[in-house]
Automatic annotation (TrEMBL):
It comes from the Eukaryota. NCBIfam families: CECR5 (TIGR01456), HAD-SF-IIA (TIGR01460). InterPro entries: CDP-alcohol_PTase-I (IPR050324), HAD-like_sf (IPR036412), HAD-SF_hydro_IIA (IPR006357), HAD-SF_hydro_IIA_CECR5 (IPR006353), HAD_sf (IPR023214). This is Uncharacterized protein YKR070W-like.
Length: 377
């Protein structure tokens, strides 16, 4: 199981023709008349490469704030990445980009896992991925969460090659893992598995997940119905610090599914979140509406009272045609896709299969286009 229009134009050399001070005053003078648009930024390959800002992203984001630092244009970060709580990610982005970013402005691939809290709040679940996947799930309110790393440490020889691994950071077994499991892992079945972010140890995680999924949640037991499996995203590749793209969560899903389907009579069942799932864009629209309520005062329509009203345009700025552009196209109105050339996409012309509404070189050019379009029309 899996979750899975348009004027084409191209801007190749759109530069900021007016000084930033002028544009800030222009934004302030027109703000009362135009408060009906919002922006969603991808992160990797659009505003950052690794931990380095790219494409004039700090300057672009500063233009969305007033002179006193108040948010003037509702925006958020819509990324398939993750592995850390939204609170921590917001703090990191604020430090790297030089603006005050709220946790509510960070929507990661695993953010929709919150919606599964009622179903699994008090059930034993496992989480895997880089960063701290168990902490992520715990902060969402799940009460009984174990990382695959900790869970595997309680089962002797579940990872048959663990003794040959030499990590640059000590494995959990060398970091004083609890001598006695916090939960009765030898009799209590795992009720759901969550792939929160890109796994670090593919071999171990594929082995342990296959054991859990084939046995109905208790490794070593007889084959039973598969417990639910959730992926935070399904990106095959993404742009990181290395010059060429890196394999993403979708690549791990393909590897797991391929192996599982060869050793199990019934195919792997799973649900994938993240872009291009239209649900993610609907969720982003709802969050932007909340930001609109707090940041916008439309005197012309609300008599000076803060409040949200339907967006005329929501801009998705991304670097991956199959994820960012495809998702915005599937979501439909009011989404408008802008493709940058700073990440996965590097083409001279628009993408053939998933053409964006607009192609620009950098995120700074994208924001410049948006503000000119909104305040000069």
């Amino acid at each position: 199981m899996r979750f899975h229009a348009t004027t084409i134009s191209r801007v190749s050399q759109l530069k900021n023709r007016a000084p930033l001070l002028f544009q800030s005053s222009q934004l302030r003078s027109n703000h009362q008349q135009r408060c009906n648009f919002g922006i969603a930024f991808d992160i990797d390959g659009v505003v950052l490469r690794g931990r380095v800002p790219i494409g004039g992203s700090p300057q672009a984001l500063r233009r969305l704030y007033g002179d006193s630092g108040e948010l003037k244009v509702p925006y958020l970060f819509l990324t398939n990445g993750g592995g850390v709580p939204e609170t921590k990610r917001a703090k990191e982005l604020s430090e790297l980009l030089g603006v005050n970013i709220l946790p509510s402005q960070v929507v990661q691939g695993h953010s929709p896992f919150r919606n599964l809290l009622k179903k699994f709040e008090n059930e034993l679940i496992i989480a895997t991925g880089k960063g701290n996947p168990a902490l992520v799930m715990s902060e969402y309110g799940f009460k009984k969460v174990l990382s695959v790393e900790e869970y595997a440490s309680y089962f002797d020889s579940i990872d048959p090659v663990s003794q040959y691994k030499r990590w640059t950071t000590a494995p959990l077994s060398d970091r004083k893992a609890p001598a006695v499991p916090r939960y009765d892992v030898f009799s209590e079945r795992i009720k759901a598995a969550f792939v929160v972010s890109d796994p670090v140890d593919w071999g171990r995680d594929i082995q342990v997940l296959c054991d859990i999924l084939r046995s109905g949640g208790l490794p070593g037991d007889a084959k039973r119905d598969q417990p639910p499996l959730y992926f935070a995203a399904d990106d095959l590749e993404y742009q990181a610090a290395f010059p060429s793209e890196r394999l993403g969560l979708g690549a791990f899903r393909i590897a797991l599914e391929s192996i599982f389907n060869r050793i199990n009579p019934k195919g792997l069942e799973y649900v994938s979140y993240g872009k291009p799932n239209p649900f993610v864009f609907k969720n982003a629209e709802a969050i932007l509406s909340q930001l609109q309520s707090s940041s916008c005062v439309d005197h012309s329509e609300n008599n000076g009272v803060s409040g949200s009203h339907p967006f005329e345009t929501l801009y998705m700025i991304g670097d991956n045609p199959s994820v960012d552009v495809n998702g915005a196209r599937q979501a439909g109105h009011p989404w408008f896709s802008i493709l940058t050339r700073t990440g996965v996409f590097r083409g001279k012309d628009n993408h053939a299969e998933f053409p964006a509404n607009l192609v620009v070189d950098t995120v700074e050019e994208a924001v410049d286009y948006i503000l000119r379009r909104e305040y000069n029309s």
